[in-house]
Amino acid sequence: MRLTTKGRYAVTAMLDLALNKEKGPVSLADISERQGISLSYLEQLFAKLRKCALVTSVRGPGGGYLLNLECEQITVASIIDAVNESIDATGCNSQGNCQAGETCLTHHLWSDLSDQIHNFLSDISLADLLKRRDVVAVADRQSQSTAADGLIPSVASA
Fold this sequence. Notes:
By secondary structure, the protein is mainly alpha-helical. The chain contains seven helices and two strands; from the N terminus they run αααββαααα. Helix 1 (5-19) packs across helix 2 (28-35), helix 1 (5-19) crosses helix 3 and helix 1 crosses helix 4.
C-alpha cells in the first residue's frame, strides 16, 4: 500500500490548520514554512479542500484558512477523498484489468485491503490526532523552530 504525496500533504496541512485554529485564519505561507510544503502545492490542495467544504477562506489582511467543521467531524479519509486521492492497494488501478483486461488472481484481496485502510482512516478524526503526544511534541518543536527564526514571537518573550 502506498499513499501518495498529495494525500499525505493534505492530511499534514489540515492537521497544522487544526493545531493553529485558535490563532484565527492560518495563512498557507505559514503552513508552508512549518511543514516544508511548497506554497503552490498547498494552494492546489486547499482549492480542493474548500470545494469539499472542509475549509473556508478569509480574505484580506490577516486572512487565511479556517476549518469549516469541528475537528471531530473531519476524518483522515475525508481529507484524502477531498483531494481525489484514492487508496488503492490493487496495483491495477481499481479497474480489475491488470491482466489483458481481466481481473488478476489477487485483485479482490488487494481491493479488500484498500477498503480496510479507508475504513481505518474513516475512524480517525483530526481531534484524535490532536490528542496524540507525538503530534503535540512535533507541533511544539515546529513552533519553537519558527519562533527562533523570527517568524513568530516565542511564548517565552510574549
